[in-house]
Amino acid sequence: MASDKSFLEFLVDQIENAGQITYRMMFGEYGVFSDGKIFALVCDNKLFIKPTEAGRAFINEPVLAPAYPGAKMSFLIEEKLEDRDWISELVRLTLKELPEPKPKKRKKKKKI
Hints:
By secondary structure, the protein is an alpha+beta fold. It contains three helices and six strands. The chain has helices at 5-14, 53-59, 84-97, and strands at 21-26, 29-34, 37-43, 46-49, 64-66, 73-77. Strands 1-2-3-4-6-5 form a six-stranded antiparallel β-sheet. Helix 2 packs antiparallel against helix 3 (84-97). It starts with a helix and ends in a 15-residue tail after the last helix.
């Protein structure tokens, strides 16, 4: 089951002060980004946040689950989606620990 765009728009609206939050379709579901840095996946209308030590400490007892079969374990966030302050703080803490995205390689122009 694919995620609803309305669910993604709700999530983006919930996350405040964590950069420019965007999403894009990836592998039939969605990746969620802050200023170009991916920090979460949304699959089947469920939010999966990349695990970090700060996120683990903040959540206290996180639920771990793969976003899709064969994926790495992520923090599955279900109970606190309505809590704007809580989810925003989790995203901010997570982003601080994630590495910066690698610069994209420039395509070489073909000579004619």
